[in-house]
């Protein structure tokens, strides 16, 4: 069998000790964020990306080896396992190749070849095959076929006998792994995807117009185009096929399988190859190619979703400050929630600024009272229906107050889903669904990561064809992304929700619930060691989680850093040598400059970890996310009808796709910056130029009010 660790080291360009150590740590239950952050010495400083790639490929190869063992056992039980076949199966590195090798031996439904064998025609097939060589004697096939006519076995004529033999040979050839591999590669390299809109849909009536008469080489198709074709096919709007030259395929099969010079035998083989191709190979190979390209498109689209989600989760937090959160509305009014500097819900009020002058005046008085009473520093306004109108109203109110909070339009994608979720109901059982929505809008301004982890990532609105891709893989990748972001930022142990805690390294949903229960019963945690008093949180979970949990104002200043408790003694020794108390740990980094770190190296803590510790001590408790910034929309631009070609506006990137970026410019409809308009130079991947949450300057290129489409450009040169 394959030496998996050795193969992984070769494939991923890693040293054998790195692979071995990382796999051992994973087998021991260590999480990837923990290994990447706190076990750098053991893995040779492998990062999260390398570790996840290693884990995925290891899982694939392990499954492959298990499948090989099952296949070898199955073929051996049939008495058909040769040394050559065993060697081929053992050397396989891809599941597709392995299944091709197993195909001739796989249990199958009754086929025409099965029926022919039951009629005793296999010896005839073998005899014909023996004649398919260069210098074989020319013998009429009918002379041998007549010997197999049998009323008892249901072979009524020599023609039926030859047809049965042909069926046996066609199936045998159709199941040859090397032939299938070659044709599959030909279809991938030379095939063309073609689509057309069905006649039931007149021109201009579907969202798939660009695929009305569409064709593109299989190897050139972009992931989003392929997923669109699949969606159009699933919705019954598109006919979607794979086109190629079947003559090339048949010529290849004949070149590989016809060796005789006998004209009649060549004709016999020509016919059986055409039958075998059409009946047994064509559809399955087309399906295999489609599936392979679909898998590739899924992976690429999920990568885009991952990158967008990471950028959104790591968006700059406005900070934990008193916040007025508004879920706008026309007829039903605006739901206003007041949040404390810790995100605690304090008060609620409904206002109706869009119904009448008197109601607008009353709403203004209410807002001013709330601003003053709760000393509001942030105002979060949802960007949905009535968002811009409410933003204008709040601007009017702020002109009449002395102390002006920061006002921000907040993307409310997913807020309504959170509002109706069991999480929201459990947190605010007595509140109306719209009030919960306002609270969520405010909290995602204070700290996007802490709030957005409560929402299914698919509902946040930063994906691309997320309902069309492999749902199991999507769920896995998005959960990994959330886990990575949460552990990168760190979590305040005394304010974090159970949903946020559940993504911390080593903490299960049960343990997260137990942490919150312990906190509710005993008050805030004063030190990290108290975690060991939490039910079901044992030494292993503590090891995995402690470094990612922060305690502000606790007994030990190191508890508010990413320094792991296992390294506290080293920090204490360093502080003692420098004559610095732990309450002044921020001074350690500057005083250590020029000091030989090797002095503090131990068996388990090397220079990589020491460098991380020093970096952490420079700014204890810092948030690694970027400084908070927000977009300012033009006051006179509220609807798509207000736009004019050539306008230059500020906006915020809401989604990035393979074909470009969507930008919110404050008109209830995101505009598209096509990949060709992202920069003055060639752009191969939009993710290299823009990211979700980024504030950008754009120029309006075209406006289609009827179809609600806005074309934008980020090019400097007009």
Structural write-up:
- There is one protein chain.
- This protein is α/β, with parallel strands linked by helices.
- It has 28 helices and 15 strands.
- The longest helix is centred in the middle third of the chain and has 51 residues, at 263-313.
- The radius of gyration is 33 Å and the shape is globular.
- The mean pLDDT is 93.
Q: Give the overall average pLDDT.
A: 93
Count helical runs.
28
Intertermini distance: 61 Å
Supply the helix-strand structural class. Answer: alpha/beta
Describe the sheet with the most strands.
Answer: 5 strands, mixed
Radius of gyration: 33 Å
Low-confidence stretches: none
Q: What is the total tally of β strands?
A: 15
Strand adjacency order, main sheet: 6-5-4-7-8
Instruction: Report the β-strand fraction as a percent range.
Output: 5-15%
Helix proportion range: 40-55%
Shape: globular
GO cellular component, one term: cytoplasm
GO biological process, one term: translation
Protein name: RNA-binding protein
Domain S1 motif: 646-715
Question: What features would you highlight for this structure?
Answer:
47% helix, five-stranded mixed barrel, five-stranded mixed beta sheet, mRNA binding, 15 strands, 28 helices, 718 residues, structural constituent of ribosome, alpha/beta
């Amino acid at each position: 069998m394959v030496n998996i660790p050795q193969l992984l080291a070769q494939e991923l360009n890693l040293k054998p000790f790195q692979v071995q150590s990382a796999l051992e740590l994973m087998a021991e239950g260590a999480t990837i964020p923990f290994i990447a952050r706190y076990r750098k010495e053991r893995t040779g400083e492998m990062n999260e990306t390398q570790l996840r790639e290693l884990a995925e490929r290891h899982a694939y190869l392990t499954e492959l080896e298990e499948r090989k063992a099952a296949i070898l056992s199955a073929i051996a039980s049939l008495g058909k396992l040769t040394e050559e076949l065993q060697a081929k199966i053992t050397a396989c590195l891809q599941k597709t190749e392995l299944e091709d090798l197993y195909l001739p031996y796989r249990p199958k439904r009754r086929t025409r070849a099965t029926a022919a064998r039951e009629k005793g025609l296999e010896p005839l097939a073998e005899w014909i095959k023996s004649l398919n060589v260069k210098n074989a004697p020319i013998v009429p096939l009918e002379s041998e076929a007549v010997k197999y006519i049998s009323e008892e076995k249901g072979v009524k004529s020599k023609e039926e006998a030859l047809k049965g033999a042909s069926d046996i040979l066609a199936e045998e050839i159709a199941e040859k792994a090397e032939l299938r591999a070659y044709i599959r590669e030909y279809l991938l390299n030379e095939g063309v995807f073609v689509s057309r809109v069905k006649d039931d849909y007149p021109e201009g009536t579907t969202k798939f117009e660009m695929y009305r008469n569409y064709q593109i080489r299989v190897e050139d198709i972009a992931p989003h185009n392929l997923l669109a074709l699949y969606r159009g096919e699933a919705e019954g709007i598109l006919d979607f096929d794979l086109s190629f030259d079947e003559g090339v395929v048949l010529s290849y099969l004949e070149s590989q399988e016809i060796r005789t010079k006998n004209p009649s035998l060549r004709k016999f083989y020509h016919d059986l190859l055409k039958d075998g191709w059409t009946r047994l190979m064509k559809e399955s190979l087309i399906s295999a190619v489609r599936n392979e390209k679909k898998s590739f498109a899924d992976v690429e689209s999920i990568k885009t979703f991952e990158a967008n989600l990471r950028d959104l989760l790591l968006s700059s937090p406005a900070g934990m400050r008193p916040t007025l959160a508004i879920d706008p509305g026309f007829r039903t009014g605006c739901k206003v929630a007041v949040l404390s500097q810790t995100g605690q819900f304090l008060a609620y009020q409904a206002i109706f600024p869009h119904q009448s002058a008197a109601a607008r005046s009353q709403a203004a008085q209410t807002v001013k009272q709330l601003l003053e009473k709760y000393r509001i520093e942030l105002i979060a306004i949802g960007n949905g229906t009535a968002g811009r109108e409410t933003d204008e109203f709040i601007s009017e109110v702020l002109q009449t107050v002395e102390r002006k909070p920061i006002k921000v339009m907040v993307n409310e994608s997913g807020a309504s889903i959170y509002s109706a979720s069991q999480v929201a109901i459990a947190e605010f059982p007595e509140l109306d669904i719209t009030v919960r929505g306002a609270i969520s809008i405010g909290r995602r301004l204070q700290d996007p990561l802490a709030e957005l982890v409560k929402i299914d990532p698919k509902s946040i609105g930063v994906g691309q064809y997320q309902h069309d891709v492999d749902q199991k893989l999507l769920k896995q990748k998005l959960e990994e992304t959330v886990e990575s972001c949460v552990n990168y930022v760190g979590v305040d142990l005394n304010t974090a929700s159970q949903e946020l805690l559940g993504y911390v390294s080593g903490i299960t949903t049960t343990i997260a619930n137990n942490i919150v229960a312990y906190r509710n019963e005993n008050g805030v945690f004063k030190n990290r060691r108290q975690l060991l008093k939490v039910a079901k949180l044992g030494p292993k979970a503590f090891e995995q989680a402690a470094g990612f949990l922060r305690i502000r104002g606790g007994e030990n200043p190191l508890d508010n850093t990413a320094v792991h408790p296992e390294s506290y003694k080293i920090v204490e020794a360093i502080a003692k040598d420098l004559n610095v108390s732990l309450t002044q740990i921020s001074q350690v980094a500057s005083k250590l400059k020029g000091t030989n770190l090797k002095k503090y190296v131990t068996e388990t803590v090397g220079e990589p970890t020491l460098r991380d510790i020093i970096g952490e001590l420079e700014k204890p408790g810092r948030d690694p996310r970027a400084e908070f910034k927000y977009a300012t929309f033009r006051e006179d631009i509220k609807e798509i009808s207000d736009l004019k070609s050539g306008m230059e506006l500020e906006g915020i990137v809401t989604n990035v796709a393979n074909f470009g970026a969507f930008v919110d410019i404050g008109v209830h409809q995101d505009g598209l910056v096509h990949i060709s308009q992202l920069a003055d130079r060639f752009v191969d991947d939009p993710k290299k130029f823009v990211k979700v949450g980024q504030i950008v300057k754009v120029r309006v290129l075209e406006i289609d009010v009827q179809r609600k489409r806005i074309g934008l450009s980020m090019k400097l040169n007009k």
